Amino acid sequence: MNRPELILTPIEMKQADAATIAAGTPGIDLMTRAGRAVADKAAEMTARGGRIVVAAGPGNNGGDGFVAARLLEQQGYRVSLGLVGQRERLTGDSALAAEGWRGEIVAAENLPFQQADLIIDALFGTGLTRGLEGAARIAVERMNMSGRPILSVDLPSGIDGDTGEPLGVAVKAAATITFAARKPCHLLMPGRTFCGPVTVADIGITPETLAATGARIWANSPPLWLHALPRPGTASHKYDRGHTLVASGGATRTGAARLAARAALRIGSGLVTVASPPEALGVNAAHLTAVMLRGCDGPEGLYAILKDMRFNSLVMGPALGVNANTRAMVAVAVNARRSLVLDADALTSFEGIAEELRQVLRHAPTVLTPHGGEFGRLFSGHPDILDPPSKIERARRAALYTGAVVVLKGPDTVIAAPDGRAAVNENGTPYLATAGSGDTLCGIIGGLMAQGVDAFEAASAGAWIHAEAGASFGPGLIAEDLADLLPNVLRGLLT
Length: 495
Ligand SMILES: NC(=O)C1=CN([C@@H]2O[C@H](COP(=O)(O)OP(=O)(O)OC[C@H]3O[C@@H](n4cnc5c(N)ncnc54)[C@H](O)[C@@H]3O)[C@@H](O)[C@H]2O)[C@@H](O)CC1
Ligand SMILES: Nc1ncnc2c1ncn2[C@@H]1O[C@H](COP(=O)(O)OP(=O)(O)O)[C@@H](O)[C@H]1O
Ligand SMILES: [K+]
Known about the structure:
- The protein contains 19 helices and 18 strands.
- The two termini are about 15 Å apart.
- The protein has an 11-stranded mixed sheet with strand order 1-9-18-17-16-15-14-13-10-11-12, with helices on both faces.
- Helices cover about 40% and strands about 15% of the residues.
- The mean pLDDT is about 95.
- The protein folds into 2 domains: about 5-215, 3-Layer(aba) Sandwich (Rossmann fold); about 220-495, Ribokinase (UDP-N-acetylmuramoyl-L-alanine:D-glutamate ligase), CATH 3.40.1190.
- Helix 8 (about 255-265) packs across helix 17 (about 435-450) and helix 8 packs parallel to helix 19 (about 480-495).
- With about 500 residues, it is an alpha/beta fold.
- Bound molecules: ligand NAX, adenosine-5'-diphosphate (ADP) and potassium ion.
């Protein structure tokens, strides 16, 4: 099996560069390999003899651009190079790289972008510290306005490598080539949309060197959790595969629980029961077949049901109601020490009182699955959690605070564990933005935990499988479709 793909922050990447240099590879060799990878990619994108315009910045990102310019000219391309800043002020490896460029150097903002078959954006990479101004800003605006394809070196200039946020104006690339490992900005929104397809070039920094930086962010994909996916044994019976309990809302709010329940069953929970308020039993009964049904009158009712220890995983929140009753039911669930997924109303019921939720959560392996709105409500009054500009950091801090695995949803769903591990999901489709889609996700995660999967793996696998199911369907997707798309995704993973 492939290794999980480690994502490095700009600081970790600098550490890995430095460690590689300290171990005996000169920095200029790394830069030459990086520049060669850029040139190869540019050549792939441009017919031989075409016109390539390289915009170089004052740091090492610009150095990569100088190397690429030289190699492309040697290959017969017509290359123009422009610099932001003064040639004499280049230092270190980029000064060495510039010595190899014999052609003219113009001011970057005056480059003939409109005439380019390809523009290479080597202005700024991981060293960007603030929004672009002056000549750099004008160069980026002109590049973007030219309508010509742009290949960004490492990352689109103007994008923050850690957060994926544009720090002002930023390059809109047709493709990006990065080195050794992807950075958070390649996966997080909106950065991902600025990058185009991202290629990772090997420049001789080993996987061991990358891991030694202590990096703890991964792209969410099967190598991260495939080993943990449950496979029933020959002699398994249904109780070996867990029993998921999903709490239903009142008579007019029952669909969400059924969506979650069906997903839990499809992902392999041996049994699934909907716990329904007495007044909603009729409507739930009319719609359930393989999923079972129990009457459950509030917290006391839940307490009574949970005396049966075979219920080992609980899903609570979808359409449950935003009120004290829901808070009391969460407390009962947590005290029963079962695996727990809390979504929607179970989170919003703790609006502004996250401390109360944190107190109860200490007892059980829990996954919280907020979308951005629920996250903001739950942690209102906690600027330390809400204010970091990186979505990964926000999810991590929420996980650390609550002691739960946090799935902060969206096109770039981040799954964070209290110990600092984080995974970023990127295989979804905007067609998942449909009512009830999140209910299905929490059912999938609850169903995996029922089968004994750890919270972080269950949440990461659940988010990936949910997104894959949605993407496999595409236009016209509604939440009812999702559970029945799971077998196909599972077959691809398990056989
Ligand atoms: N040995 C290494 O460290 C390697 C680095 N590589 C490249 O080096 C890049 C990182 O290089 P650097 O750390 O030099 O950083 P950058 O080249 O991304 O930019 C840093 C330079 O830009 C200036 N700057 C930052 N923000 C600015 C702004 N808003 N306006 C104007 N100037 C600004 C800084 O003062 C500094 O001079 C990577 O993205 C990658 O492309 C590759 O060559 C591979 C090897
Ligand atoms: N633009 C998008 N691209 C990919 N996935 C998305 C997008 N928008 C939403 N999703 C996913 O769809 C699901 C929506 O969940 P949620 O907002 O809770 O919906 P609901 O409350 O209607 O069930 C989440 O898993 C989220 O990650
Ligand atoms: K760049």
